[in-house]
Write a structure and sequence with these properties.
Length: 502
Amino acid sequence: MEHKELCNCVTDPKHSKSLFLRKNQAILHNAEKIFCGELPHESNFPAHICAPCERRLNNAIQFKNVITETQKALAENVRTKRCVDLSPTVVQPTKVRAAGSSRRRSIDFNVSTTDDTQSASPNILGTPVLVDASSYVLNHANKELIEVARRGNPSVLRQRSFDGLSSETWMAELINEMKTRCPMAHQILSGLLENSIYPEKRNPALCLIYGIIMFLKCHELSKIQRINSVLLIQGQASVNVIAELNKYGFCLELKMKYNILNDIGNHFLDRAAELVKSGHRFVYVLDNIDWEEKAHDMRQDVQNRSVHAVATSIVFNRVPEKDLPNSGPQKNLHHCNVDDLVIVNDEDTKKIRARYRAIIAKLLFEHFPAFEMFKQYTPQVTECAYAKEMSTRSEVITMPVVMKDEKKYAECVDVLDQLEKWTHEIYSAAGLCSPESESSKEITPVITAHSRPDQPASHVPPAATESDPLHGVKIPCNGDQLTRVRFAGAKDLRAGCHSPKQ
């Protein structure tokens, strides 16, 4: 001991390690674990350890860790017999066995310190009071959540329609619902999160936890799950990712994807019917989508294939057409000078510059907040005959993608049939079209005018009949030049047919 070693195995200090050096902090930490306290760093106490004792110390620490992990596994997997006085979650005191018992004794490293041992009795006696208080709080919070889940006073989580999913204030409404209708649950969840977290980060986590709890209580409270499902679908998440997240209540099942998309599509049709009923006219905008599916193992019967589809959208005109003349062209292009039509005078130049200034100012105000001080001096509306209409956003409604190839006339005809079907649904919902009769399904109007050599009867209006449910309805189909030519040819193909089947 004259060399201040913990053991007398090695008498030379060169073959031992000092416990209080910075590089030997791990050895000191293990020694304090065995000592169950902090080792004093004084001159009268040993401060060195030899290599054999270091090896024995490491073995003891590893053995202690194995015993601790085994006890944790047994506590999680083995059920405890439920008693009347104490809850099974309360740590039971160690039973005293007989001195001559042949039963093997277990090693328990969950040894409390002296202060904990002295205060064990009052803690055990006071535990039922704490358990009763916590059970009361949980029961009260559970009753609040059950009341929120009732249909009489619907929760914000029941707003599963498109308007509810697209609302920008749903998170604030959900936080307000938690504060007013279930304050106990809100206090518990808020207490589990740190108060130092910003509301921008804290509120989404709080709403997600609350939404998962309510969804597990009632599957109709699935607003957050539907929003997450839409985000996963938009992000092209794999089937396995959606299936795994559904197990945790984060999103809906994969098969519910089509129901959500159908609900969104029905909302778009309802919106289109409202606009048509209010007097707006619309056009179809078409474009082709092409992609290639590559085979993983290419064989003679398994090759890369090209997939084609047609994307469709409805664009409503902001300027009403009912007040515009439709009798014919204002001038005959064969007898007018084009230079006189496109000439720009000084007044037109001033108006063009003013419009350019307004457009550039909007871009500056949007992307550079420092220019906000000049917003009050800049006109926000373009001066024109329809300034009010042009200041509003265009109504663009996305329609389903039609899996047809527009390079084939037969499939272009199918696309035109689908457009006619959508038009009939919109006008029927708006109350501007009579239900389709059986006769209209068999006979279509025949174009009686003469055909042009380049595009026979493509731009000639058909002779409408009273049996046509869309009598007098004309919907333009816009797109690039190639799409317009292809669909004009498909219209020619149907010009001489007497029924849709032909």
